[in-house]
Amino acid sequence: MEGWQGWDQYAEFYDWENAKTVGRRDIRFWQRIAKESGGPVLELGCGTGRVSLPVARTLVRLVGIDRSHAMLSQAKRRVKRAGLGGGLLLLRGDIRALPFVSSSRFRLVMAPYGVLQSLLRDRELREVLTSVRDVLQPGGIFAIDLVPELPVWREYDRRVSLRGRRGAKSQISLVESVRQVPSRKLTIFDQEFIERRGRSRSSKRFSLAFRTLSVHQMTGRLRRAGFSVVQVAGDYRMGAWRPEAEVCLIVAKRKL
User: Fold this and answer.
1) Fewer C-beta neighbours within 10 Å, C or N terminus of the chain?
2) What percent of the chain has pLDDT over 70?
3) Angle at CA 133, nearest 5°, toward 132 and 136?
4) How many of the other CB atoms lie within 10 Å of CB of 123?
5) 143 and 163 co-located in one domain
6) CATH number, domain containing residue 98
7) For residue 18, how many C-alpha atoms fall within 13 Å in the half-sphere facing its CB?
8) How many domains does the chain have?
9) Which of 13, 10, 25 shows the shortest CA–CA distance to 163?
């Protein structure tokens, strides 16, 4: 399985699910660090624009990149409705080889909400870190949000994990299974979104895979890629990291 698989199918339901889970609890952190950088800013895995749009309102220039055409289509519709104009540029591309001709163009690169954990192999992570280093200005910041609880996620089979309305006529249920692959440090979510509109019923099935990356592993790889680690935090207010924290924020700086 490849880490990019499943995201096109997920795009239709991504905003609905995340409104019920993550919500906006990380947004102020990304707005603050982006504003402090002064821009320009690059967001890896911008998806439907959940982070990009609110951050773009605080900046002159933000570029979002994602591999999923369906995710970017959702984001572009949101940008048009928001009337953000040229302040936010959305590109389709591979974060393992960022498509920018000129080097050292960004002052901040953001990797929100576990996007680097969709890289299922060490080689892919090395490629991303090298590519990010090359597009950052010397002294530029690379900020990473990891989900540390993946390896302790309990396995279960076909559980209704979410249910709710979307709009006036649509009722959605998420039927989910969780599988652990300890040998590869993978957590796989098999998802089925069932939508009911009156008497009609439709469903979409797909799987998403995420890789466990510990603080030690991630900071070590950053140092080897040419970064110095500035801070490791355990919440979006930049409180101290602790093993039981629900998030892991790593702020690194490209060496001069």
Assistant:
1) C
2) 98
3) 85
4) 10
5) no
6) 3.40.50.150
7) 17
8) 2
9) 13
Structure confidence at residue 103 as a pLDDT band (50, 70, 90): low
Question: Do 204 and 228 sit in the same domain of this protein?
Answer: no
Tell the residue number behind the tokens 């959940």, with chain if given: 50
Report if residue 2 sits inside a domain.
no
What's the rounded Cα separation, in Å, for the pair 56 and 62?
A: 6
Any domain includes 80: yes
| Residues recorded for the chain | 256
**Full domain range(s) for residue 244:** 7-148+212-254
Of 40-49, 81-90, 146-155, which range is least confident? Answer: 81-90
Residue at token pair 């952190």 = 29
- Residue in the structure block whose two tokens are 């509109």: 197
Strand partners, 178: 156, 189
Question: Is the Cα dihedral 2, 97, 64, 72 positive or negative?
Answer: negative
Provide the whole-model pTM.
0.94
